[in-house]
């Protein structure tokens, strides 16, 4: 098997009495997109900031291509931060040019512009670009040293749906070019689309890890039927054979026999006016594992 690009062993990070990361371990194979998922405060950013070297670990081991992080790590890693402040009076082109000059190893400027779709905004001041354009520029900056391993911390938080999709296309293109990506996100749909493997983090620990499809198959899969609030009031029998939960503005039923479930709901006289049916997804998995919604 290939040496993992990154291997984390029993990582712990405390801030005083706050145990932000409580013994996280994982290994990332070359060329994949690995996602760290979890709700606010789960410990995702702390984990990647420790790996990046921005924070020091309380304990644990971090190996890059099988060795402790050193010069190769600093030269071969690209980081897209959540809150980079750009110089407002610099243009997009100037920002990229200045940033590239910081490195000995550099990606060609034209390639960065093409990959991150910056052609139309090169002469705009950073103060005048949209949120999605800023994320694309930050991504180009993370690629400036032609890195082997790229960290993206919540790259689409705050973007509108169109800008999110645009960024997903670009991340997909970077992945196809053979680079390894580590991504943090709260969005399960984003992880399902972009990530080959994911770790779901909650309260500083990994609670599930693997390929999204394997994780879904192992933990449930099937169908989720949602009904409006009160749709089962007064008609729910003592023994209802499928998992029920409150949420999504009503009641959600997890079933592997959608036809049978529907027949039962009809025979019980449930209110089906607001019935919707969809596949079980990673967000459902998170809720079933933790008993909590992913986002407040
Ligand atoms: N510098 C710090 N000092 C004290 N506590 C901190 C510090 N940074 C993070 N924490 C705490 O550590 C825990 C994990 O935070 P972290 O930012 O890593 O979570 P996250 O999963 O990235 O959340 P988000 O999605 O909101 O970014 C939280 O309880 C947070 O309040």
From TrEMBL:
Domain of life: Bacteria
Domain ABC transporter intervals: 6-228
SUPFAM superfamilies (alphabetical): P-loop containing nucleoside triphosphate hydrolases
Entry keyword annotation includes ATP-binding: yes
Gene Ontology terms for molecular function: ATP binding
Coiled-coil residue spans: none
Annotated keywords: ATP-binding, Nodulation, Nucleotide-binding, Transport
InterPro entries the UniProt entry points to: AAA+_ATPase (IPR003593), ABC_transporter-like_ATP-bd (IPR003439), ABC_transporter-like_CS (IPR017871), ABC_transporter_ATP-binding (IPR050763), P-loop_NTPase (IPR027417)
Family the UniProt entry places it in: Belongs to the ABC transporter superfamily.
The protein's name in its UniProt record: ABC transporter ATP-binding protein
Organism of provenance: Desulfobotulus pelophilus
Lineage of the organism: Bacteria, Pseudomonadati, Thermodesulfobacteriota, Desulfobacteria, Desulfobacterales
């Amino acid at each position: 098997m290939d040496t993992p690009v990154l291997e984390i062993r029993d990582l712990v990070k405390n801030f005083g009495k706050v145990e932000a990361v409580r013994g996280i371990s994982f290994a990332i194979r070359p060329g994949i997109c690995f996602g760290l998922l979890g709700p606010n405060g789960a410990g995702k950013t702390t984990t990647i900031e420790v790996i990046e070297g921005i924070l020091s670990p309380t304990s644990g081991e971090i190996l890059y291509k099988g060795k402790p992080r050193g010069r190769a790590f600093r030269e071969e890693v690209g980081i897209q931060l959540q809150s980079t402040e750009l110089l407002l009076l610099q243009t997009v082109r100037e920002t990229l040019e200045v940033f590239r000059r910081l490195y000995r190893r550099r990606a060609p400027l034209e390639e960065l512009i093409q990959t991150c779709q910056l052609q139309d905004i090169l002469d705009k001041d950073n103060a005048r670009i949209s949120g999605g354009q800023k994320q694309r520029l930050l991504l180009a900056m993370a690629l400036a040293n032609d890195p082997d391993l790229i960290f993206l911390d919540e790259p689409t938080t705050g973007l509108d749906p169109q800008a999110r999709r645009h960024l997903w296309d670009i991340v997909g293109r970077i992945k196809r070019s053979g680079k390894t990506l580590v991504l943090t996100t709260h969005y399960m749909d984003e992880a399902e689309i972009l990530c080959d493997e994911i770790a779901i983090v909650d309260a500083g620990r990994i609670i599930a890890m693997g390929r999204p499809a394997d994780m879904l198959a192992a933990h449930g899969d099937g169908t989720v039927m949602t009904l409006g609030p009160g749709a089962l009031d007064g008609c729910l029998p003592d023994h209802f054979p499928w998992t029920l939960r409150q949420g999504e503005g009503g009641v959600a039923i997890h079933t592997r026999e959608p036809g049978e479930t529907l027949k039962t709901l009809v025979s019980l006289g449930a209110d089906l006016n607001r019935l919707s049916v969809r596949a079980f997804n990673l967000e459902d998995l998170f809720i079933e594992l933790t008993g909590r919604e992913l986002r407040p």
